[in-house]
Amino acid sequence: MEAVRTGRGPGPRISRRCQQFLPNFDPHLCLISIKKFFGNISFVVLLNLLVKPGWILVENLVQDRLGHAAFGTFTALFNWTLIVASVSDLGTTQLTTKRVAATPEFLAEYFPTLLPLKGWLSVLFLGIMVGSGWLLGYHGHTLTLLALTGASLLVMQYTQFLRGTLQAHQRFNTDALLSVLEKALLLVFVLALLPVGITLDRYVGARAVAVLFTFVVLYALVTRLYGRVRFRLKWEHARGLLKASLPLALITLVYGLNERVDMLMLERLASPAEAGYYAAAYRWVDAIMMYLWTVLPLFFAKFAFATGKREEQQELLWFGQRIVTVPLLFVCAFVLFRGEVLFFQLTHSTSRELGQMTLSLKILFVNVLVHAFFALYSTLLTSTNHEKPVSWLVAGSIAVNVLLNVLLLPRYGAVAAALNTLLCAVLVSGGYVWLVSRRAGVAVPWATLARLLLAFGLLCGTFAGLRLLLNHWLLEAVGAGLVFVAILFATGLVRVAELKALRR
After folding, report:
1. In terms of DSSP H, where are the helices of 136-265?
2. What's CA 71's distance to the chain center, in Å?
3. Confidence (pLDDT) at 408
4. What is the SS3 assignment for 439?
5. With bands split at pLDDT 50, 70 and 90, how would you rate the model's confidence at 447?
6. What is the DSSP letter of 267?
7. Measuring CA to CA, which residue among 421, 428, 62, 425 is closest to residue 265?
């Protein structure tokens, strides 16, 4: 520390490099911390790039083999079970991540209660899932598929709960490997089924096996890292945990409804085929949004670790704004200009069906663009004890979405669902910005947001010009990508000094 105070030694150089990223963090730890965190993010993204594109292509092939109506039915079942499963732990997963990140001894004290509590909640919610499915009109074999899909998702939720301990201990690379294991296994299973013929039953069964195997691997790993935990359900601990986690459970529920209710309502109010069109478009949204859902939990743990340190939260937000948004700008621009090429595998679809899917896709990717700018703000709020206003905000957007769905889905189908989703995303994101500024007291990086918007506008202009000149999607994408790199430097979103600092 003396070197920093007197200006001698390496301290000032470290501090100046650190100022490029998080100037309010400790000058000796900042550069090491940001380089390691940036490395964690890069590793997670790399793993997902190795697995997720292959999975998307295989799922396109599955939909083409099963047909839009059959796949639409499965998607409706999957999304309903996902909504129920996402809230099955009543917010204990997020609570555990926050508490362990702030207080490591929380794990030893509360895990003997959390593990059996989570198991009993899963059994309870499986019954709720099947019962509610019956009330929605699913019977017979369809209800059996719903039960199997739901059981798989509940095991997946338990897996994510265990992964939360790894994130809270900042074991991001280990968590990254486990995050892609299930998809990698499922990719292998589905490819093995294609030669013998894939049916809906076999597809659901393959998903169940992949989820179960991933859970066994993770449970064994957590036991090895932190020791075997004896189940001791202490009711006073359970009551305290549930009371503290319920606000997080409400957020999870409203987020699940907000993201997934459209698919279910389409299948029930319009037709299974319309749900299939929407599923084909939303699959690409899910694939790209995986970048957000992979990176944002890392920031969730970092924000929770910086609870009560407003300057550090602000620096994380300002740094994260570029990390989260920049990669998605290029993807969104490409889809807006050449989205139709993503459906090249759906060879059994008519031109009208392809038109419906393409229009829905482009509208949904404007929604992705909105999330790219503002999803990080929600992460900051929910990780720093502002869950309640976020819950009310998202709940209001769900009410608007459901009302619009009831009015518009029977007539306009998948396109209306996409438009409703976009409108609600805009409303909620505006609320996030207001809450971060007024409730959390963290300054919004308006200058960075303006540069990001400028970069996106220039990129769209580049795509439009290249389409007129080249009229070939691959050449346009390569050319726009090269120009985009220049745009990032020209707008100051990426600076040479930052890149040099990361290399040192």
Report:
1. 140-168, 172-193, 200-226, 235-265
2. 22
3. 94
4. coil
5. very high
6. I
7. 421
Going 246 to 441 to 427 to 318, the CA torsion angle's sign is: negative
Return the pLDDT at 415: 95
Mutual angle of helices 27-66 and 310-338, in 10-degree steps: 30
Report the 10 Å Cβ neighbour count for 162.
Answer: 20
Q: What percent of the chain has pLDDT over 70?
A: 79
**Confidence class for position 474, pLDDT limits 50, 70, 90:** very high
Question: Is 216's pLDDT higher than 60?
Answer: yes
Extract long-range pairs of 291-296: CB within 8 Å, 24+ residues apart.
291/45, 291/48, 291/327, 291/328, 292/324, 292/328, 292/371, 292/372, 292/375, 294/44, 294/45, 294/48, 294/176, 294/179, 295/41, 295/44, 295/45, 295/323, 295/324, 296/324, 296/375, 296/376, 296/379
Task: Give the whole-angstrom CA distance, residue 124 versus residue 87.
Answer: 12
- DSSP code at position 9: S
- Please tell me what DSSP assigns to residue 415: H
> What are the angstrom distances between the C-alpha of 494 and each of 38, 319, 487, 489, 504?
14, 11, 9, 5, 17
| 45 sits in which H/E element | helix 27-66
Query: What average pLDDT score do residues 45-57 get?
Result: 74
Tell me how far CA of residue 377 lies from CA of 171, 207, 228, 431, 462, in angstroms. Answer: 23, 33, 37, 10, 29
Both tokens assigned to 159: 């897996």
**CA atoms of 210 and 213, how far apart (whole Å):** 5
* Tokens (6 digits) for 267: 């299948």
Residue 330 has what pLDDT?
A: 96
Write phi, then psi, for 22 (nearest 5 degrees).
-125, 80
Q: What number of helices (H) and strands (E) belong to the chain?
A: 17, 0
Cβ-based neighbour number of residue 498 at 10 Å: 14
3-state secondary structure of 345: coil
Where in the chain are the domains?
A: 2-444
Reported as a pLDDT band with limits 50, 70 and 90, residue 389 is: confident
Q: Residue type at 85?
A: A
d(CA 324, CA 373): 8
